[in-house]
Amino acid sequence: MSENPLYEEAEATEAAAKAPKAKTAKSETPLDRLLVVISSKVEIPEVLLEVPSRPGVKLRISPNVSQQHIRAWRKNAGEDSKHGMDSTKFGAYVIGNTTVGIIINDEEVEEDGHAINFASPSILAATDTSRPVPDAVRAFFGVDAHVESAALAILDAAGYGDTVEVEDPMKESSTN
Question: pTM for this structure?
């Protein structure tokens, strides 16, 4: 190339003209945007649940609960038995299966480098139980009513208590 800046500019312009043209992206359609939205995984963020009878203790809960989970827990709680479903046992299943960690005084409790839950050997020993659900959960909470209330709070966090808003497309806007 020469030392003449005008010549260099002309070469660059000529090279650009000879380069293959990049395809122009077509404008994004509403369908494209919808496909992007529905292709992403929906996951509800974890929540903290205070244990009423245990000051300073919170459970770290993953409230990603499907209808299939609920059906299994109801069945395990005796829904199809002649005595009917035990609501406290159902609550224990909800709590036990959604707990991903236990926190005391704002510090995560770990055992062997992993967050503990109701299946952890130390929790089973402390509650003097052999089954995480429903026994360890009930012993950990200490009050059956708190087990049921906590389960309802978890299901609410999972979206089972959400109100879904509807709009009437025929209703005219009140703003002019």
Answer: 0.76
